[in-house]
Amino acid sequence: MTGLFAPRSIEELLSLLAGSGEHEKHFIAGGTDWLIKNRGNISEDAVLFDLSKIPELRGIENRGSYLRLGSMETMTSIHTDPEIRLHAAALCDAASSMGSVQIRNRATVGGNLANASPAADTPGALAALNASAVIFSPSGTKELSIEEVLGTCPNKNTLSDSDIIMEFRIPVRKSHVSAFKKIGSRSEVSIARINLAVSAKYEDGAFCDAMVFVGTLGTAAKRSPEAENALLMPISLRKEGFKKALCEFAGRMIPSRSTLPYKQSAIQALAEDVLEMLEARGRSLEKSGEKSHG
Ligand SMILES: Cc1cc2nc3c(=O)[nH]c(=O)nc-3n(C[C@H](O)[C@H](O)[C@H](O)COP(=O)(O)OP(=O)(O)OC[C@H]3O[C@@H](n4cnc5c(N)ncnc54)[C@H](O)[C@@H]3O)c2cc1C
After folding, report:
1. Greater pLDDT, 114 or 287
2. Which of 63, 178, 245, 284 is the most exposed place for a label (fewest CB within 10 A)?
3. What is the pLDDT of residues 62-71, one digit of tens each?
């Protein structure tokens, strides 16, 4: 069995996968990464699966304790969705800052994670929001953290060639705020030189329960425990503590890279901006009587 298939359900995809045996397999979502990587490089007996016709991979839905986000949702559908805006602001920030309008209309959130580029924007936001990925394959279903999917090798995820990212589950957490920002080489169509995603619980001006992820320090979405602790500091020390912790974290992650001084200076600027975004979102959350979270 070789060629291109466009299954119309997960069931059909799983049965095609089971029948494709040892053949080289490729999933194509929006194609924005896949085409660039694979043009002219596909073996003749490869099996290609177009994921665009599978309804189970679509949809954004509030299920009470979590948001269900289909892996085939595009950056445009994500950043324009009111539930994402309300409960997962960091993901909304990340999706709206990706590429150009044309790229955002095609690029999917599943493809962005599966591609595992160190500079990818949405994996860090999903990880900071404590999201999980639900994976389907002919051998069963599993739920993994974003860090487990990314693993430790740049540009290579930990999934097998028959594993499909079906959906993401993003916890809906009371009194939590989140934010994402990146610095690229220009303002549009720019891959991140460094990106920062944070979520935390906000109460009376103080943060707790923080999750901080930094992208482009060797691999995508690296968690920084020192920056999470710094966010818990008294308000008078918080900003400088957060900047210093992120600067030290970059030094620990990429100690001998020539880009380290640039990244250390950039991460401090990002830290200030993201902290301001979190504080503003926390204040507006309290003002609105906790109608919104995330
Ligand atoms: C001009 C340009 C600008 C860009 N700017 C940015 C940017 O600012 N930030 C950023 O993060 N990225 C950027 N990208 C990269 C790219 O658009 C994203 O990584 C995109 O989200 C990939 O999604 P896709 O649907 O196009 O995936 P595809 O290209 O279709 O697939 C990518 C990989 O993921 C696998 N895959 C896709 N879906 C699944 C699934 N459901 N389950 C398992 N495996 C799957 C594919 O097999 C393939 O290996 C840019 C790309 C271009 C060309």
Report:
1. 114
2. 63
3. 999 999 999 9
Q: Where are the alpha helices (DSSP H) in 88-170?
A: 89-96, 101-106, 109-115, 122-128, 146-150
The model's pLDDT over 231-289, given as tens digits with 9 standing for 90+, comes to: 999 999 999 999 999 999 999 999 999 999 999 999 999 999 999 999 999 999 988 87
**Residue 10 belongs to what H/E stretch?**
helix 10-19
Question: Ligand 1: which residue has its CA nearest to atom 18?
Answer: 112
* Token pair listed for 214: 């930094």
- Residues 58 and 70: beta-carbon distance below 8 Å: yes
Which amino acid appears at position 99 of this protein? G
* Residue of 50, 100, 102, 112 with the most ligand 1 atoms within 8 Å of its CB, for mutation: 112
Residue 276 structure tokens: 């301001």
Domain boundaries, the chain: 3-53, 58-294
Determine the average pLDDT of the residues in 90-109.
Answer: 96
Alpha-carbon gap, residue 167 to 118, rounded angstroms: 21
Domain 58-294 indexed as CATH 3.30.465.10 = yes
Q: How far is CA 132 from CA 11, 145, 159, 174, in A?
A: 22, 5, 14, 18
- CB within 8 Å of 20: residues ≥ 6 apart: 1, 47
- Name residues contacting ligand 1 (CB within 6 A): 26-34, 51, 71, 98-99, 103, 106-108, 110-112, 114-115, 120-121, 164-165, 189-191
